[in-house]
């Protein structure tokens, strides 16, 4: 009997899952502090330009590979380039997804710890300077860090056992709308705080001097991270799309919603930070050390803290779901494993690596490579090596080597391919994206 391959049930569900992949810690944690440090509106402008010139075309390149074949990354490349060795790229993507999922889950574990502490009331009632110590105590505790990380991964892999339609799509269809509702309620509250305009000025007024070359490179890297590019997450998801999905329209929708969430996260955070007189350029600490202090100064702080960490939880779970789907689809199709067994294999590997990452803040803090602990090393390799090199490969492969007929057929809507869309995608994939990615890589290597 021929196996019937899974697919998303509806176009809305497919978009929700892809937006779920894109919207994650990158939007709510990384984007606001990077914008804060790199000249506000100037950074946002460059970021949006990167989304148009790099992000959407590379999303399209992944969509074309996945949807034209309805296969996992290895099967897809085998079908598109028979007889070539290009399908080995699949191992790169699977490894990249596992690496990213592992370090990412540690931060997701922090999110659950904060959610739990907020719900029990233990997060409240500290002086604003105490939150730094609260965070340091927590990451310094191996048991707490490891347990929360494993709990998060158990939830993640439990969802994965439910399959593409009930698990991936079902969870995204519930969590994504809720995420938007929470964000909007939060933003409305932030905007009503006294002095909120100072936060908006900080976020949106363009300061090109503060941007600099480094800010431009950060914006490019952030576009890659935020849109989940380079490790075949969107190849895998689009392999479950139906053949009449208008790919270009969906790519624009996904990129727009992702950018909107990043901007709304900034609107949520900075007016509140300014209104209560906190430091806006706290960098990565902003979410775990500054925001709790901010929330508990607001009326109803107990609920705001819970709501914020719930928001982060929804955003991060839908991202790790997409990362997990890459190896799971690969194992089920290439190694003919059942979905349950494939999920179990991935869970064991990811939990093992994530545990090492969680321990790298405490008992393994002395283990360093090139001055980085295990967590930072995997973060660096995942974000800078796997995502960027993967994106470079995909752009060059589709731009230069894939048959033009495949590209045209995938771009077609109701049998017609707009030449404007075709040229935009091709020029960006052939020239703009490779040059931009090489610049970022050069910068990271020489910095
Ligand atoms: N896009 C996610 C974020 O912004 O947090 C991270 C991510 C998800 C990266 C899925 C890569 C991926 F395949």
Describe what you observe in this structure:
By secondary structure, this protein is mostly helical. It has a single domain (about 10-445), classed as Hydantoin permease (Orthogonal Bundle). It has 18 helices and two strands. The chain has a two-stranded antiparallel sheet with strand order 1-2. Strand 1 (about 370) and strand 2 form a beta hairpin. Helix 5 (about 90-120) crosses helix 16 and helix 7 packs across helix 14 (about 300-335). The longest helix is centred in the last third of the chain and has 34 residues, at about 300-335. The protein is globular and about 65 Å long. The mean pLDDT is about 95. 4-fluoro-L-phenylalanine binds near residues 24, 100, 226, 231 and 233. 4-fluoro-L-phenylalanine binds near residues 26, 228 and 231.
């Amino acid at each position: 009997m021929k196996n019937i391959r899974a697919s998303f049930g509806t176009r809305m569900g497919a978009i929700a899952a892809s937006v779920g992949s894109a919207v994650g810690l990158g939007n709510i944690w990384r984007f606001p502090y990077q914008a804060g440090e790199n000249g506000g509106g100037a950074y946002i402008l460059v970021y949006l330009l990167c989304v148009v010139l790099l992000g959407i075309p590379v999303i399209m390149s992944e969509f074309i590979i996945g949807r034209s074949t309805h296969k996992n990354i290895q099967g897809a490349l085998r079908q598109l380039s028979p007889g070539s060795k290009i399908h080995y790229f699949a191992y790169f993507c699977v490894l990249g997804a596992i690496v990213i999922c592992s370090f990412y889950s540690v931060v997701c574990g922090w999110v659950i710890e904060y959610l739990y502490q907020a719900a029990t009331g233990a997060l409240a009632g500290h002086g604003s300077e105490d939150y730094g110590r609260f965070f340091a105590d927590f990451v310094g505790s191996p048991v707490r860090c490891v347990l929360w990380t494993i709990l998060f991964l158990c939830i993640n892999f439990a969802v994965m056992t439910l399959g593409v339609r009930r698990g991936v799509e079902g969870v995204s269809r519930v969590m994504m709308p809720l995420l938007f509702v929470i964000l909007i309620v939060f933003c409305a509250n932030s905007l009503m705080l006294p002095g909120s305009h100072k936060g908006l000025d900080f976020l949106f007024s363009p300061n090109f001097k503060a941007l600099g070359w480094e800010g431009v490179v950060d914006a490019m890297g952030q576009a890659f991270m935020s849109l989940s590019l380079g490790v075949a997450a969107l190849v895998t998801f689009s392999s479950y799309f139906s053949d009449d999905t208008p790919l270009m329209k969906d790519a624009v929708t996904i990129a727009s919603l992702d950018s909107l969430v990043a901007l709304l996260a900034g609107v949520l955070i900075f007016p509140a930070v300014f209104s209560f007189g906190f430091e806006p350029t706290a960098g990565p600490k902003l979410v775990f050390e500054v925001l709790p202090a901010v929330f508990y100064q607001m009326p109803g702080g107990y609920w705001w803290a819970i709501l914020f960490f719930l928001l982060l939880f929804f955003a991060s779970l839908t991202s790790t779901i997409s990362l997990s789907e890459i190896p799971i689809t690969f194992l089920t199709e290439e190694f003919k494993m059942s979905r349950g067994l494939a999920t179990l294999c991935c869970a064991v590997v990811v939990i093992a690596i994530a545990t090492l990452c969680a321990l790298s803040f405490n008992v393994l803090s002395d283990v360093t490579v090139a001055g980085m602990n295990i967590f930072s090393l995997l973060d660096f390799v995942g974000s800078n090596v796997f995502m960027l090199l993967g994106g470079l490969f995909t752009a060059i492969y589709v731009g230069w080597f894939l048959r033009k007929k495949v590209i045209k057929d995938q771009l077609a809507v109701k049998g017609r391919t707009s030449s404007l869309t075709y040229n935009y995608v091709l020029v960006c994939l052939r020239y703009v994206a490779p040059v931009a990615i090489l610049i970022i890589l050069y910068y990271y290597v020489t910095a």
